[in-house]
Design a protein that fits this description.
With 453 residues, the protein is mostly helical. It has one domain: MFS general substrate transporter like domains (Growth Hormone, Chain: A, Up-down Bundle), CATH 1.20.1250. The protein contains 16 helices and no strands. It is globular and about 60 Å long.
Length: 453
């Protein structure tokens, strides 16, 4: 399989292996922690879950810590990224241990949400650092492949952690003790991720020494200026700005479908009081979506040499419109599982393309700030989707008008991004472009910067 060959090729790079292992262990633990959180908030037997409840939880957990994003970018462009990966994972392990203690103490939800908020805030530094560091361990001509393998594998690892946590929940007694146990397991994973990151050289992941600000206070005071400079850097090139706009809208659509799937699983497909069945069904949807992520990692390096990275993003958006409309309107579990797989495929396929465009068209000195803003857009879009869902979705999640609106959003994104690319085609800093290969025999990918197949 091409993906396995690509992965094997990248794993020959020692530094990539270590960064890759750091990502896998970190995101595996993320999946475990997030399921423990979901089980405690959304699938507790004594709680009823409506679209408003889901929206409120997402707003509490995602919107405030999205404000951390700008600070992560500025600090990632001044702190050694390897140190960020080590110490943020250690800090997360400490915080999840405290969160487990709060669960056992049965503290009120606001206190629990505050602890979760701290864990997820630190997560911003880790995810932004992993993305910003990737070009430091992979040659430029391999970035499309690396972006197909690395973030996608991380997402699959998170899904695997989530599925494992779902299984644990099904076989142990419900209650605070089981939730605390799952949370502690995620903390052990974070320590493992810190240990792997510590095997890398301190200066390996950048930024370069002459770009590091010694005083944190100076870096924090420069947040506004740094964000302004980062935004100006993106806007001057236009192509990364258009790519970020496209993925933001697609993330909004993904968020609405996620809330819809959760409500369907809990309140339509099963008796709302049968929370085990609802959680198992939602876990199944998460699983098939993860398979779609894997399929995106397989297809993206195959397709982009032929149609280019921007062309693949357009195809993903349009495919999302067609598949969600044709399969989702049945509101039956079987077709929705197929729709979930295809949603994973198009969402991750587009993200791989956007990651590559941002990495190749943004200077390394600005990359941390740009990826931090990228993370903020991702989370604000998801929270916005949850807020819209709260007003538009019924308690059982079944709404044909909302699903049609989501399909229209995917279609508008595809058509709008296609028009934007014609006006401002992505041009990597090395002087190449990101379109299809000029010749299958040339051994070059032309616009995408990947090696020919």
């Amino acid at each position: 399989m091409a993906l396995l060959r690509d992965l094997a090729s990248l794993l020959r790079l020692r530094d990539f292996r270590r960064l890759f292992a750091t990502r896998l262990t970190s995101q595996l633990s993320d999946g475990i922690f997030q399921v423990a959180l979901a089980g405690h908030v959304f699938f507790a037997p004594e709680k009823q879950t409506s679209a408003g409840d889901v929206a409120a939880a997402f707003a509490i957990l995602l919107l405030p810590y999205s404000l951390v994003g700008p600070f992560t970018g500025v600090l990632l462009d001044r702190w050694r990224r390897r140190q960020v990966l080590v110490w943020c994972n250690v800090l997360r392990a400490v915080l999840v241990a405290a969160t487990a203690a709060l669960v056992l103490l049965r503290v009120p939800n606001p206190v629990f949400f505050t602890a979760c908020l701290l864990v997820l805030s630190v997560n911003r530094f880790v995810l932004a650092g992993l993305s910003a560091a990737l070009p430091r361990v992979v040659p430029g001509e391999r970035l499309v492949v690396a972006n197909a393998v690395s973030p996608t594998a991380g997402t699959i690892a998170a899904s695997a952690g989530a599925l494992a946590a779902f299984v644990v929940h099904l076989f142990i007694a419900e209650g605070p003790t089981s939730t605390a146990l799952v949370i502690l397991i995620s903390g052990a994973g974070y320590l493992g991720s810190a240990a792997v990151a510590a095997t890398m050289a301190v200066d390996l992941l950048g930024p370069d020494a002459d770009q590091i600000t010694a005083r944190v206070r100076d870096a924090l005071l420069g947040v506004a200026r740094g964000l302004r400079d980062g935004a100006a850097h993106v806007w001057e090139r236009r192509a990364p700005a258009h790519a970020l706009g496209a993925i933001t809208v697609m993330r909004f659509c993904f968020g609405i479908l996620t809330v819809m799937s959760l409500l369907l699983s809990r309140n339509l497909f099963h008796d709302p009081h049968n929370t085990d069945a609802g959680m198992a069904t939602f876990g199944l949807i998460v699983g098939v979506t993860a398979v779609g992520f894997f399929a995106a990692a397989v297809l993206t390096p195959i397709v982009t040499p032929r149609i280019g990275v921007p062309g693949w993003i357009v195809v993903c958006a349009l495919l999302g419109a067609v598949t969600q409309l044709s399969l989702g309107l049945t509101f039956a579990l079987g077709p929705l599982l197929v729709a979930g797989f295809l949603l994973g495929l198009v969402s991750q396929g587009a993200k791989i393309g956007v990651d590559t465009i941002v990495q190749t068209t943004v200077d390394d000195a600005f990359r941390g700030r740009v990826f931090a803003v990228y993370d903020v857009l991702f989370n604000v879009a998801f929270v916005g989707a949850a807020a819209v869902s709260a007003t538009a979705l019924p308690a059982d999640g079944r709404s044909a008008p909302v699903l049609c609106a989501v399909a229209a959003g995917f279609a508008a994104t595809g058509l709008g991004y296609a028009a934007a690319v014609r006006r401002h085609p992505p041009r990597p800093l090395d002087g190449g472009t990101t379109g299809p290969a000029k010749s299958p025999q040339s051994g070059e990918l032309g616009k995408s910067g990947n090696q020919g197949r």
